[in-house]
Design goal:
single chain, 5-stranded antiparallel sheet, 22% strand, disordered N terminus, 52% helix, 31 helices, 809 residues, alpha+beta, 8-stranded mixed beta barrel
């Protein structure tokens, strides 16, 4: 009884193990055939042991239960076998009389095996395997199966399948030993079907990618005939597939001129003749590497599409070329962007004219052509006169408009083969190739001056400007682009020095002058540090009394290398180079100190007049610098007079008005120097509330010989007195000039008649000599009047003194 109970317990335990193994076998049969073999052997052993345990029970009831369990487990096995997509069948050993294996008989086959072998299951069951195998492979297969049945070691073998009318194929079979036969599983049948489907799916997917790709793809055969193209190619070329595929070569889409140009390049590179055609497109591809270039596709409607084209060879697995693939994408936007950037890099953004970079390139090309054909060439540099006034008075927008209008006028003045460029600010350059003579250059320069001088309408305002032009010729004056521009520039500055609104041809004398200016500029840079500048002072006399009331400081340069350099030589150079700001600051500081010293020498208060340049006047710190100079020198502000030019006031900028107000707040006087040489506008005099007007010496010099000059002098004095502004006459050299000024009641005079400009150390002597001269002149006039017994003049002398005596003379 105890033994029976133990058997019952173990039987139930085996069932708990076997049932899950059956389920696991079903899963593994579907997904892991190799692991399935091991589990299946365990299952069969478990089933056999369970049956033995059942047989261990002595009563018939337990035997019946064992049979029932075997049927149930058999049903589970069939379900697992039928549920698998793998072909599976079980074979029993067939032996001869000597117990030698001679064949195998199929005892079970699932539906997948029947389908694969090409027979129904009823036909397969009981059929010897040898009847299903071809003669060529029968002995080999039987040998492997017999070895597995005898040794129990599973093996794999290739067997033919599909003999029942289906197409014969070869599959890999896994053969596993059973107790009296073998179990065969066709391992790869399902996988290959799946693989084929996947290959087809991948092929379809690849085709969909190609068709939906945003870039053009066109396949050709070896001769260039189009065999396939995607939708992007249709959109790019405007051709439909039916228009091109099998009908035309890829050459149809290419510009014949581009193909010819490329063929010439390849002929030189490959050193073999190359005809323009499809071979031009694939010449480099044949070497094994793709070729990428920019081309133009010719669309169906005749328009051009700029494309980036990559040509590549289509090859089989063994490397044989079967055709070519042209992959292209539209680069019109990119090309437009590149062209825009290139244009910006080579053209002026305001006028659209070539800039310096493009000009130099064209000059270099023009020089080479001129050399080749023995031609001459002219280069003109044009600079707008006083352009800064336009910007300062009308604004930069008006200035830009004016530059654009002038650019158009210059273009209209030259030939279409000439180049008009803007190289900066208000400076233009005109290049004229194929020139004949210097006379032609002069006529062209005159025409350009005439065009520029025409009235320009800016808004509601009419603006008139002039220009200064310098020009030089190739090869007479220069042989390189840089040299041509440099020498034309030198000639242009000579035109400005000659009064502007004219043109000058370059000469070697100008070059020497330019070198001289450069050397002077270099010397000027060290002159201030080396204490080479000096101030000389010219006395100023009150016309009514003949008394010295002040002096004007005049800058002198005593160069160890050059000697005494005239101000007319070095001051313009200092102004152009920007050095005059530093020099001017030194002048103001030194003049303040010297004025204080001069007052001590002559024993009375004196005024000090100092000229400042426009660049210095525009310095933001001018007021603070003047206050500092006055404070350090101990000089009161009303003693200092700042002289500025009419041209400075003409700019009419807020900065000028603010600076003048700052100077008035400090207490410094302001005078307009060289009045009468500019526009002499009363509106500026009234607007800026200046303290003095200085009549230019050119009018004073002509006042006694030219009635017109005398009239100008009279008008300026009358106008200034009407505005309660003092008048200073400079450059007085004769008594007749002085008499005229005295008659017109001029306030102050200075000039060689009284004294030249002298160093501070000599100023006291100069004042003494002037006072002595004034006294002498007054005595001489008194004696002359007394000799004439003119009581009226005598009365006038007694009341007006010096002034009346000089008028009397």
């Amino acid at each position: 009884m105890k033994l029976s109970q133990n058997i019952f317990v173990w039987r139930n335990r085996f069932r708990l193990i076997v049932y899950p193994l059956v389920v696991l076998c079903i899963v593994l049969f579907r997904h892991a055939p190799r692991l399935y073999e091991a589990v299946w052997m365990m299952l069969l052993g478990g089933m056999l042991l369970a049956e033995l345990l059942e047989l261990g029970q002595s009563n018939s009831t337990t035997m019946w239960r064992a049979m029932k369990m075997a049927r149930r487990e058999r049903a589970l096995f069939k379900a697992a076998a039928e549920g698998s997509q793998q072909a599976f069948y079980v074979c029993r050993v067939m032996c001869d009389d000597s117990n030698r294996v001679v064949d195998f008989r199929i005892v079970h086959a699932n539906s997948a095996a029947a389908k694969l072998l090409g027979h129904s299951r009823s036909e397969l069951v009981g059929t010897p395997v040898s009847a299903l195998l071809p003669k060529a492979s029968k002995m080999q297969i039987m040998g492997v199966w017999s070895r597995v049945a005898a040794t129990g070691v599973a093996e794999s073998i290739q067997i033919p399948v599909g003999l029942g009318g289906s197409e014969e194929t070869t599959r890999t079979a896994r053969v596993v030993a059973l107790s009296n036969g073998v179990a065969v599983t066709i391992l790869h049948g399902m996988n290959e079907e799946v693989t084929d489907k996947r290959v087809q799916d991948m092929h379809d997917f690849a085709q969909s990618i190609i068709q939906s790709a945003p870039i053009s793809m066109i396949a050709t055969d070896l001769n260039g005939t189009i065999v396939a193209m995607n939708s992007a190619a249709e959109r790019l070329t405007l051709y439909r597939k039916r228009d091109l595929v099998g009908e035309h070569s890829l050459v149809l889409l290419h510009d014949p001129l581009e193909l010819s140009t490329r063929a010439v390049q390849l002929s030189k590179h490959l050193e073999v003749p190359m005809e323009a055609g499809f071979q031009t497109l694939v010449a480099n591809v044949r070497s094994g590497e793709p070729e990428e270039r920019e081309w133009a596709y010719m669309r169906k409607d005749g328009t051009r599409a700029s494309v980036n084209l990559t040509m590549t060879a289509l090859r089989t697995a063994d490397g044989k070329t079967t055709g070519y693939l042209a992959i292209a994408f539209d680069i019109a936007e990119r090309k437009e962007l590149v062209d825009s950037v290139v244009h910006m890099a080579h053209h002026d953004q305001l006028t659209g004219l070539p800039n310096r970079v493009l000009l130099l390139d064209r000059l270099a090309q023009a020089i080479e052509r001129s050399k080749r054909f023995s031609q001459e060439m002219a280069v003109f540099t044009i600079d707008i006169d006083h352009f800064k006034r336009i910007n300062d008075s009308l604004g930069h927008a008006a200035g830009n408009t004016l530059l654009t209008l002038i650019a158009r006028q210059l273009i209209s003045a030259v030939r279409r083969t000439d180049t008009v460029a803007r190289i900066g600010g208000d400076e233009f350059v005109v290049m004229m190739p194929d020139f004949r003579s210097l006379d032609d250059a002069e006529r062209c320069a005159a025409l350009m001056l005439q065009k520029i001088a025409m009235p320009h309408i800016i808004g509601s305002r009419e603006v008139l400007v002039t220009a200064s032009i310098g020009y030089c010729l190739f090869p007479q004056s220069a042989t390189t682009p840089e040299e041509l521009l440099q020498k034309a520039d030198i000639a242009m500055y000579e035109a400005k020095a000659a009064g502007r609104a004219n043109s000058q041809a370059f000469s070697e004398e100008m070059a020497r002058g330019a070198v001289e200016k450069l050397e002077i500029e270099e010397d000027l840079r060290g002159a201030l540090e080396n204490n080479e500048f000096r101030l000389h002072y010219q006395p100023q006399i009150r016309c009514a009394t003949g008394e010295v009331i002040g002096m004007e400081g005049l800058l002198r340069w005593e160069s160890p290398k050059r000697g005494n350099v005239p101000p007319a030589v070095f001051i313009p150079i200092a102004e152009e180079s920007g050095l005059l700001v530093q020099i001017g600051e030194w002048v103001i500081r030194q003049a303040c100190f010297d004025c204080k010293r001069a007052e001590a020498l002559v024993g009375k208060p004196l005024s000090m007049a100092v000229n400042i340049s426009p660049s210095q006047f525009n310095q933001q710190n001018l007021g603070a610098m003047i206050e500092s100079a006055l404070e350090k020198a101990g000089l009161s502000a009303e003693r200092l007079e700042i002289e500025i030019t009419e041209q400075l006031l003409m700019t009419n900028t807020p900065n000028i008005l603010a600076t003048l107000e700052k100077l008035r707040d400090i207490g410094v006087s302001v005078a307009i120097d060289d009045f009468g040489t500019g526009f002499s506008s009363l509106s500026y005099v009234m607007q800026y509330k200046v303290d003095r007007l200085k009549i230019d010496q050119s009018f004073i010099a002509q006042s006694t010989v030219d009635p017109g000059a005398a009239s100008v002098v009279r008008t300026i004095i009358a106008m200034a007195h009407g505005l309660k502004i003092d008048v200073v006459a400079e450059g007085v050299e004769t008594i007749d000039q002085l008499s005229l000024l005295l008659r017109k009641r001029c306030d102050v005079a200075q000039g060689f008649l009284f004294s030249k400009a002298v160093p501070l150390e000599q100023f006291a002597n100069a004042v003494a000599e002037i006072e002595s001269w004034v006294s002498t002149q007054q005595k001489m006039a008194t004696r002359a009047v007394e000799a004439k017994s003119n009581r009226t003049l005598q009365a006038q002398l007694s009341t007006e003194g010096w002034q009346a005596s000089m008028i009397a003379r």
